[in-house]
Amino acid sequence: MQLKAYLENAYNIKYNPPLNELWTAGFSLPFTDPKRDEIETFDYVEIFDNGKRIGMFRIMDSEEEREVHEKIITYDCEHVLSTLMDSVLFGYHERINLTTRQNIEYLLSKQRIKHWTLGQCDFTKYFSYSWENEDTLLGPIYSIPKPFDEKFQWTWDDSSYPWTLNIVRYSEEITGELRYRKNMKGIKRKVEAKDVMTRIYPLGYGEGVNQLTIKSVNNGLPYIDAPDFVRELHDGFDYIWVDRKFEDPKTLYASAQAMLLKACMPKITYEIDAIDYELIDPYKIEKYETGKLVRLYDEDFNIFVDLRVMDRQKDDVTGNPLDVKLVLENKVTDLGTIQADIEKRQKVNEVYSQGTTNIDSQPFQDNCDPEHPAIIRFQIPNDVKNVNQLILTFETLRFRAYERAIKGGGAVVGSTSAGGGTVSSTSSGGAIVQSTSSGGGSTQTSTSGGGSVQTSSGGGDHVHKMFHGGGIVPSEPSTIGLYTAFSDPGRNTAASFYAKGTGASLYTHGSSGEHTHSLTIPNHQHSITIPGHQHSINLPDHQHEIHLNPHSHDITLPDHTHEIEFGIFELYQTPSKVTIEVDGNTLPFDSIRGQDINLIPYLAKDSEGKLQRGRYVEIKITPDSLARINATVTGRLFIQSRSGGTY
Hints:
mainly beta, Phage tail protein beta-alpha-beta fold, 6-stranded mixed sheet, 5-stranded antiparallel sheet, 43 strands
């Protein structure tokens, strides 16, 4: 930085250095001061109090008053810490499991002009933070120690550039004493009990059932109680504290606890009209700077009280250099209150994504069987804050196909071997069957060439009975019969005889002996005449037995194609039960249909009992036979719109 001018004619110099807040200052110049032309808005000015450097400020506003007898110009200034209001924190920023130093350095890195760096940091905390579209960097930086349960103070070194920001623990050293007739001219004591609380119900982001509470980190309780000794003094003061910037229950709990400890007792404030003893202390020992601990002796109550200097205001450094106003408190104002005091200047917006409840429906329809279950997969994204509900509704239908017949290339197929066996046919009742009528006809056989046929040797030797004796003639006949026969084998000589007697049988004298016959058949034809007729067949009740030996069949299928018939074809049956698994956990349910089945107890969870994010949920429905599953998974999800674009 380059020095432009010394403003030796400045007067009405004032400054106000509140603890953990933005300091302000001001001064006036004669309108006719030639150095007025050197001063421009946003110039930096160092303020001194009788040689003691107060700090570096930035000129912001100016006001001219031109009267007949006097013309002046007054400048209002802010401490250079206000340069952290020049840059913004655009978009959404989340910091998880990082140290206090890392978080502050991250925010300081967002300065468009790097005015500030981090120096001393006495705290190492691992709270989670998130910011979205902040109009300044100072607001997010001031929010860093908000969850702390330790007392802290923001300090800085603005004597060299870039400036250095520090966050330190309070010193418990007593640096000065206030009492009448030494350095105290007047005292005003104020007790504020209207903001006392002995139980606090903290709420973070969201709304309704989706609003963040501390139950998950506080044994299921949504509130925190003040210490026992406080509640023995006064109890029954409840307070609901809502700060939607908090998205982590641990950080919300810590912030609420710190707030409760600061607000469980009435706030006692002392406003002291004092003499700036530092200017007249011959030993230069006592200090009454902002953030220091001083001891006040209250003569009226005859008590000593150790109080923290919250503000040390001077209204006229040049005109009344010894007049100083001190604001002392018995406790430190909560940073939430501090932020509220400067919100008009900071213009911290309220455009945080609080989120909204969305209904997500995942339909599913497909065929399945015991070896190929129906698998429903869907994702729970990382930015889902809460899963309010996840239910399954399904029904089991008949297996469905969409065509019949497919192409075949032909082949020789050997059937499996058969063991053979004897098979009895089913019984038949028999019947009388009449053939169809026949017209008959004359049928001529084929021509035969005839021939000589010799019979086989038959042994042929035999005798013939000539006459059979049959009894006794009662009387001799009147005539005697004459019989003639051949008397030689060639039948050439004849002989005659007559016979009478007792009727005995007469045989030939000898036999012809063994012989054969020769039969000569001339060429001839046979003519058969078949008249018109019918046949009647009577089939009695019967069975057939078929004996099959062990065998196999070879079937040859030539190359061929089948015409495909398109359509919707359903199996004739449905399964009798199904098995449902969610993330590997089996449900105690086997019905083939279900309505609004709660899946939450069966989903995979993390170490804190919350449903795992950034992964796919897998639901398996396995039937005991061919089936078609028609299912819908409906989820009520609380999400925040912090990812993706606006495409």
